[in-house]
Design a protein that fits this description.
The structure holds two protein chains of two kinds. Chain A is an alpha+beta fold. Chain A folds into four domains: 134 residues, HPT domain (Four Helix Bundle (Hemerythrin (Met), subunit A), Up-down Bundle); 182 residues, 2-Layer Sandwich (Heat Shock Protein 90); 135 residues, CheA-289, Domain 4 (OB fold (Dihydrolipoamide Acetyltransferase, E2P), Beta Barrel), CATH 2.40.50.180; 130 residues, OB fold (Dihydrolipoamide Acetyltransferase, E2P). Chain A is built from 21 helices and 30 strands. In chain A, the strands form six sheets. A six-stranded mixed β-sheet of chain A has the order 10-14-15-13-12-11. A six-stranded mixed β-sheet of chain A has the order 27-19-20-30-29-28. Chain A has a six-stranded mixed β-sheet with strand order 21-25-26-24-23-22. Chain B has a single domain, classed as CheA-289, Domain 4 (OB fold (Dihydrolipoamide Acetyltransferase, E2P), Beta Barrel). In chain B, a hairpin with a 4-residue loop joins strand 10 and strand 11. Chains A and B meet through helix 7, strand 17 and strand 18 of A and strand 4 and strand 5 of B.
């Protein structure tokens, strides 16, 4: 490269940074137009650009920046006051300069664009005729060339202090120090260094290798107990961990780097849409790995644009609704639970779940039945479906229906999760969770079919181990699919060895369930063994295996063997426990759902007596048990059974209804009902099934203990009135324990 | 016209009695049997993953790739590790042969008797003293697509 080309390259890098800073500074200045320091800083930046482009022989750039410098000079001398129109004009100038720089970058020349319009416009803005003090409130007399639709300027509001310099290890050229701002900036830029990203990537890889080697050496300390060896490996361990941390930090950048562009984007967009929007940012300094920043830059930008375009209402409408005319977008970022959380919320119109449901059905994305079965939260998540956009008008900003699903895909691609919440009339919040690093992650090691697999801890919720009996009883089947009742919720179960098509190796009576989270669903992965949690280095799979969605990569364990890393979402999708909409029988939580009678209910079906079919809501069922007839004892006139160190009273339903005792079977099937800490076992003749159906009570009944009849599974079934039965057999059952009187 | 490069070098190996070769420049190393971690749900042509000094390398069973009968149960395959755009890939073979140098005059088109999959993957044949050397197209060989998995199922 010639010396001239070198110079130009340097100049381009510095100039892009300067222009970005100018963007931010101008938007800030607009809120506080007489801020001397900022005016001075902006002036100096443009002055520097003008000087350098002149020196490098770029005449067009020189004339454009010259006119900007003139404007700034008069503003700095307080002969002219910044207003919305001037700001827009200057921003246009910055964009024009950017375009010319891009042209220089690719062709070495400034490009063919004609900037005479822009120059004329800026010259006009600089006319002595413009009244300095009133510029902020009166609309300009000459129609502006730029599309400034508003008469009212954006209402400035305090925003968390914008950083003058991003805290990354890259140099910002120190502008000649002559103001408070500047001395601070110079100090910061002296202690930082510009480093090639490729070099950092290389360092990262080497650290990864070192971590693997360290893991292998650590294995040996178990068997080789020579004290100096153990001591040395201990030091190696420590140093490696710190080195790993340090190198990861070099690649971290504050999320403020992405966010810093938003104030301008929001300003421009709001102006174009004739809205007033202010953006707030909290947690700018939250660090993210560079690769993550690259991956989320576009999705975040899209979400913010969406908020302005579709979320925030026009000022008149907001005022009518009793909201402040200016809409607010709030960005929050923070570290929590080993993940980065990013929240984007607006106080706009919110999302209407009914409208979403309607559109989705209209577009054939879901059926009417599925639409009815959805909760509001699930309905709101419909925005993530591909090809979905409820925007009435498709603006050139967003609303092309390609947005939110791409956002979700991009976030999931880096192992993150995205969720959306909204209240009509109040606003919408998007919550994103991303793992802190992609390269080295903590993972739970499990085994199935004789092989080891790693499960990223970020998806892990809890571990459940069921011993023999518990497993038999705890695992329930709905239409042949296994579920486990975890604290009242039915958790769909996926058997890992079955999904992978490998043979079960361990024949144990115990069942190990790893409760995982995918999308916004939970499910239990049944594995043969659960081992330790380890820090593993994630390595990608070769292209021959890329198509396997159940694997996210592979890693090398401490003993040198390769283990595959499971992709939790991939497994969930393959096992069909996760789809955009659940089409299986849905479990109702113990808290029940406040739905109308027409909604689906999950019911337990059983037989009482010879042929009576009865049903009760599953959420009233605490457990299903089976007892040997011989273990049933009597306590007074009551039949009881010893169960889990408690005495469980039994009520025979056949006796209650028909007077006759249940058929003499060796095993009694019992439905345990519990309330207020008290339990009772309802003895039935046979437990038939668990079903999910729409229950429409056809006939109210006058029979005690029966709520009514309904057609369930095409058969007439009586609905059990548990409460009535208990009130009759044991009036004290529902008495809550009295306070000791 | 006589080409400047009239001779080429191949790293050779045996599969079910047949003699194959790949361009020596493409070969990263030749190593003995390595323990493999199988990959469930993958095409049966992918025998597993190997740890090669910290790199995870996919191992492709060439017998399966060429639709040959399975190796005898007591024989362990050897690894011919080749360089590709995607990283290193290991080809599992019966036995490793020498590096041989062949001349253009020995080149022949693949014989008609070559059947099935081999016709896609063998680019040509060199007539050696004792036998024929079948030249394997590495890029094509390692391109294992899902069609294979479906077929093999």
């Amino acid at each position: 490269m010639t010396e001239h080309e070198d110079l130009v390259k340097e100049f381009l890098i510095e100039s892009y940074e300067n222009l970005d800073r100018l963007d931010r500074d101008l938007v800030e200045l607009e809120k506080d137009p007489q801020n001397k320091e900022r005016l001075g800083s902006i002036f100096r930046t443009i002055h520097t650009i003008k000087g350098t482009v002149g020196f490098l022989g770029f005449t067009k750039l020189e004339s454009v920046s010259h006119i900007g410098e003139n404007l700034l000079s008069r503003m700095r001398d307080l002969e002219l006051l910044l207003d919305a129109e001037i700001t827009t004009g200057l921003l246009r100038m910055i964009d024009a300069i950017r375009r010319m720089l891009a042209s220089v970058e690719s062709t070495g020349q400034e490009g063919d664009e004609d900037h005479s319009d822009l120059i004329a416009h800026l010259t006009r803005l600089n006319q002595p005729g413009r009244a300095p003090a009133q510029a902020a409130t009166a609309p300009s007399a000459t129609p502006p060339a730029a599309a400034v639709a508003e008469a009212l300027p954006l209402v400035p509001a305090p925003v968390a202090a914008a950083p003058a310099v991003p805290a990354i290890p890259a140099a910002t050229t120190a502008t000649p120090a002559s103001g408070g701002d500047d001395t601070q900036r110079t100090a910061v830029s002296d202690s930082s260094l510009r480093v090639d990203v490729g070099l950092l990537d290389k360092l990262m890889n080497l650290v990864g290798e070192l971590v693997l080697a360290r893991n292998q050496i650590l294995q040996f300390t178990a068997t080789h107990t020579d004290s100096s060896f153990v001591g040395a490996t201990g030091r190696l361990n420590l140093v490696t961990s710190e080195l790993q941390e340090g190198v990861m930090k070099t690649r971290m950048q504050p999320i403020g780097n992405i966010w810093s562009k938003f104030p301008r984007i929001v300003r421009d967009l709001a102006t174009a849409c004739s809205k007033q929007v202010q953006i707030e940012m909290e947690g700018k300094e939250t660090d993210l790995d560079k690769t993550i920043i690259e991956a989320i830059k576009d999705p975040l930008t899209h979400v913010v644009r969406n908020s302005v375009d579709h979320g925030i209402e026009p000022p008149e409408e907001r005022v009518r609704k009793g909201k402040p005319a200016e809409g607010r977008i709030r960005l929050r970022a923070f570290h929590e639970g080993g993940q980065i959380n990013i929240e984007i919320s607006d106080d706009g119109a919110g999302i209407d779940p009914a409208k979403l449901r309607g559109k989705a059905v209209q577009r054939g994305l879901i059926t009417a039945e599925q639409s009815g079965a959805m909760s509001d939260h699930e309905a709101i998540r419909l925005v993530f479906l591909p090809g979905f956009s409820t925007a009435e008008k498709i603006t050139n900003v967003s609303g092309r229906g390609v947005g939110m699903d791409v956002v979700k895909t991009n976030i999931e691609k880096i192992g993150g999760q995205v969720d959306i919440q909204s209240t009509i009339g109040e606003g919408t919040t998007l919550k994103i969770k991303i793992p802190l690093t992609l390269a080295i992650i903590p993972a739970l090691m499990v085994a199935a079919g004789g092989d080891r697999y790693a499960i990223p801890q970020v998806s892990l919720l809890e571990l459940v181990r069921l011993e023999g009996d518990q497993a038999r009883q705890g695992i329930e089947r709905i239409q042949d699919a296994p579920f486990y009742r975890l604290r009242g919720n039915l958790l769909p179960l996926v058997y890992l060895q079955r999904e992978l098509g490998v043979d079960r190796v361990r024949d144990e009576d115990a069942t190990n369930i790893v409760v995982l989270k995918a999308d916004d669903r939970q499910f239990g992965l049944v594995v043969e063994e659960i081992n330790d949690t380890e820090e593993i280095v994630v390595k990608p799979l070769g292209k021959q295996l890329k198509g396997l969605t159940v694997f996210a990569g592979a890693t090398i364990m401490g003993d040198g063997k390769v283990a595959l890393i499971l992709d939790v979402l991939g497994i969930a999708q393959r096992a069909k426990v996760v789809s955009e909409l659940r089409d299986r029988a849905r479990a109702e939580s113990a808290h029940g759902k406040a739905d109308g009678a027409a909604d689906l209910q999950t019911l337990l079906l059983f037989r009482v007596g010879e042929s009576d079919r009865m049903a009760m809501p599953l959420n009233l069922v605490a457990r299903l048990e089976e007892f040997q007839r011989t273990s049933i004892e009597r306590s007074g006139s009551q039949e009881v059974v010893q169960y889990r160190s408690q005495i469980l009273p039994l009520v025979s339903l056949s006796k209650f209804f028909t007077g006759a005792d249940a058929a003499a079977a060796d095993l009694r099937q019992v439905v345990v009902f519990a309330e207020n800490g008290r339990s009772v076992g309802l003895v039935v003749d046979q437990i038939l099934d668990i079903v999910s159906e729409q229950v429409v009570v056809q006939r109210r009944s006058s029979r005690a203990g029966v709520l009514g009849s309904a057609v369930i599974q095409h058969r007439v079934t009586d609905l059990l009135d548990v409460h009535a039965i208990m009130r009759k057999t044991d009036p004290t059952f529902f008495d809550t324990a009295d306070a000791a009187a | 016209m006589a080409s400047v490069q009239s001779s080429r070098q191949f790293s050779t190996f045996f599969l079910d009695g047949l003699y194959f070769g790949v361009e020596v420049l493409k070969v990263q190393e030749l190593i003995r049997y390595q323990e493999m971690t199988r990959v469930p749900l993958a095409s049966r042509v992918v025998r597993g993953l190997i740890n090669l000094r910290g790199q995870i390398v996919t191992a492709i069973d060439l017998r399966r790739r060429l639709d040959m009968p399975e190796r005898e149960a007591d024989r362990v395959p050897m690894n011919v590790v080749v360089r590709t755009d995607d990283g290193a890939v290991s080809l599992l073979v019966d036995e490793i042969g020498d590096v041989v140098e062949v001349h253009e005059e020995q080149f022949e088109r693949a014989p008609e008797t070559l059947k099935g999959r081999a016709t896609e993957l063998v680019t040509g044949v060199y007539k050696m003293q004792q036998r024929l050397l079948l030249v394997l197209d590495v890029e094509r060989t390692i391109d294992v697509d899902r069609a294979m998995a479906v077929r093999a199922a």
